[in-house]
Amino acid sequence: MNILTLNAGSSTLKYKLFALSEHDAADSAENVLTEGTVEHSEGEGLIAAAEKALGECGAWKLDAIGHLVVHGGDRFSDPTRMTPKLLAELRGLQDLDPLHNPTETAIIEAGMRLLPAVPSFAVFDTAFHRTLPEIAWRYALPHDLTDRLHLRRYGFHGLSYQYVSEKLLACLGRSAEGSSLIVCHLGSGASVCALRDGKSVDTSMGLTPLEGLVMGTRSGDVDPGLLLYLLRSQGMTAETLDDVLNHHSGLLGLSGLSSDVRELEQAAGDGNGSAALALELFAYRVCKYIGAYAAALQGVEAVAFTGGIGEHSPAMRSRICRRLAFLGLHLSDARNKNAGHEPTRISTDSATLQAWVIPTDEEKQIARAVSRLLTGG
Q1: CA–CA distance from 301 to each of 266, 298, 344 (Å)?
Q2: Annotated catalytic residue: which of 74, 95, 125, 144?
Q3: Chain centre to alpha carbon of residue 282
Q4: Collapsing DSSP states into helix, strand and coil, what is residue 109?
């Protein structure tokens, strides 16, 4: 069967057309008939790119279209075939994720409009974190407020965590049972996940993808009192503050230059102090979460890096790992520098805490989920 996957992220659109057997979602690259990535395009640009991909791939006989949807809220967890009614319900979650939801729903709508005979499925990033214990997902707010408004920590990057954790366990040569792992998905959007027995038990993003690490243009953790201060003292509206936190903060806000780690590393090498600070602050926040999750897990066997930054920036991995020697993580500079497109151990052989680079494949995870639905799995 032929399944087209569309993955609209914070700054990219990735699409892949898979040819899958009915019994396996196929791990080999030969099963990708065509693929593409559109970078640094937002909103209407991403939608136009998706429409172009739909047009090009529509020439093939498609059995289904699979869409990554970041936020499913309480309404959606399992992969779901989209109908106009369900799409309207999904659009109603826009306030929970104004950065992704409008674009994702528009792309699903485009698929249903341009290829009406091909079923469209939504696969949700939040689903993997349904295993969070209450002490990890509940906010310390009044019960009547949190329960009525469904205010909880949902977590994101779930498709990536599922794919990478399974690959990491295979690299370690062990089953999920009894395992304690930490996976860092570091990209324009960034988060960390603690996994016990292969299941998510804590993660850095919360009700929305704004909580947690410093990101490309998102602030990550900020004192709520600071936000109240801005609203009161600067006369900001909720919309203005939302824009500042989601689009003008993070690496971009710290550096005043760029949200792209590649550009910041070059600028830092040229002596730009603000760029250097942004990079060090990013790494410091990642280390804080790894340390916290090592405590939550009561020990950790391995740390994996994935995502655009996690996979492609040896310098950032080095900044992070050099702070984790106290946990037994010692980096091999040669392995770190040469980590490529395959899972690669970057820690030394003697390190008691292993570190790995595991390239993620959210598109393959989407295709697998859709394939199981189509075949009754």
Answers
A1: 33, 10, 16
A2: 125
A3: 16
A4: helix
